[in-house]
Amino acid sequence: MKTTLIKNAEFVVAWDDTRQQHVYMKNADVAFADGRITHVGAGAQAATPDAQIVSGSGMMVMPGLVDIHSHLVHEPINKGYTDETGSPGLYNSNLYEYMPTMEGDDEAAPAQLTLAAAELLMSGVTTVVDMSVAHEHWIDIMVQSGLRAYIAPMFRSARWYTRNGHVVEYDWNEKAGEAGMERALALIDKAEAHECGRLTGMLVPAQIDTCTPELLKASHQEAKRRGIGWQTHAAQSLPEFHEITRRHGLTPVQWLHSLGVLDPGSIVGHGIFVDDHPNTHWGTATDLSILSETGASVAHCPTVFMRRGMALRDFGRYRRAGINLGIGTDTYPHNMIEEMRHVGYLARLMAQTPRAVTTGEVFHAATVGGAKALGREDLGRIAVGARADLVMVDMTHHLMRPSRDPVRSLVYAAADRAVHTVYIDGRRVLHEGQVHSLDYRKAAEQVDEAQRRAEALVPSRDLVAGRSAQQMSPLSFDVV
Ligand SMILES: Nc1nc2[nH]c(O)nc2c(=O)[nH]1
């Protein structure tokens, strides 16, 4: 494949391997061929005579962002419905009373994925972990999108529900959990065999409280045997914290550790309610050291929890404890740059100091932190030999100016609006802010229609009182 040379970029966010951190290079070039970066720095000597030259004038070139926790087929339909919901009787968690009432049907699945994938690309994401319930068009749409994707089908041994809004009950079916894992493995095999070479599997027993210890351990062992990643939701709500302490006398993090499922290949989705979080009032203070010592990563997704007044305390504290943090969008919008902004602001709010976290540390988590969680030293960085997953940011966009510190301008002001071009594996998948591989406008209309269909089903799904969508989640204003 011929070389592409991005010539004379105003800024390049390059990886300094010696210092193990990103650095700014000014007026630099980035060249790539065969899906890998071949040159970073000044001088066009890297270019072969037939190289395709792309002007870097007025551009910042940065590594593609790595989103390690998302539910692409479930979340777009929730927009306008779950923004302000949370059970007063379940410590404001949305998971048990509200989330099960708004679900897309099979027809909605491809549209939800299409819309979410386009949003990700537009916000500079090049790698995503998609933890969804398996659906027919998953692989095809992921391939079409051009994203590098971790196909992570969720499975579990129990379904949770609440009949009164203050007790979470579990409907156990262990065989269904085992069968779910088998189906997940078959889909992972199919994804990994795909000729595009950008699909990898991840094993995801859905939640710590809905999976038997046997399923958690068996899935972890199988992930290790195959050399793939493993992730579960844990320490994500107070009802879950209380359920696990009631069942086992251990916190969620301690219990996972006791099962032997925490190691550098494991990702804990959320990891908020740890033993020394001010809301848990638990008697130990070991959870952060367990996470750090085992090498497990935390997928930090602040937006969805901020909506309900919940927060990880705090990003800087976890980082200083030596825990590897990656960032996930989890919910809508699938805007990784806005998620990064929330990471920074929330950490400072929780620690009550502007020094809780630097923008450089947030960017690290959104790139190499995520890549480390996935065991990938070839992602999240601009370095020779790394995959050519690159984002060109338009520094002439008025929201990027002043551009003294362009990553700050991007994270705190411009966000996706300044994302101009995205390459994945050296292939251009977004240009002038537009995704051409996916009809996301049509998909948006289809998700809208699907939400109307789902709204009609809300009373039958609300086990507490058969309430309508309007009763569960009133509109911002009365319609007159
Ligand atoms: N935050 C969470 N989002 C979810 N989506 C989904 O399908 N399951 C979950 C979950 O456990 N937590």
UniProtKB/TrEMBL annotation:
<dbReference type="InterPro" id="IPR011059">
    <property type="entry name" value="Metal-dep_hydrolase_composite"/>
</dbReference>
<dbReference type="InterPro" id="IPR050287">
    <property type="entry name" value="MTA/SAH_deaminase"/>
</dbReference>
<dbReference type="Pfam" id="PF01979">
    <property type="entry name" value="Amidohydro_1"/>
</dbReference>
<protein>
    <submittedName>
        <fullName>8-oxoguanine deaminase</fullName>
        <ecNumber>3.5.4.32</ecNumber>
    </submittedName>
</protein>
<dbReference type="InterPro" id="IPR032466">
    <property type="entry name" value="Metal_Hydrolase"/>
</dbReference>
<comment type="similarity">
    <text>Belongs to the metallo-dependent hydrolases superfamily. ATZ/TRZ family.</text>
</comment>
<feature type="domain" description="Amidohydrolase-related">
    <location>
        <begin position="60"/>
        <end position="429"/>
    </location>
</feature>
<dbReference type="InterPro" id="IPR006680">
    <property type="entry name" value="Amidohydro-rel"/>
</dbReference>
<dbReference type="GO" id="GO:0102127">
    <property type="term" value="F:8-oxoguanine deaminase activity"/>
</dbReference>
<keyword id="KW-0378">Hydrolase</keyword>
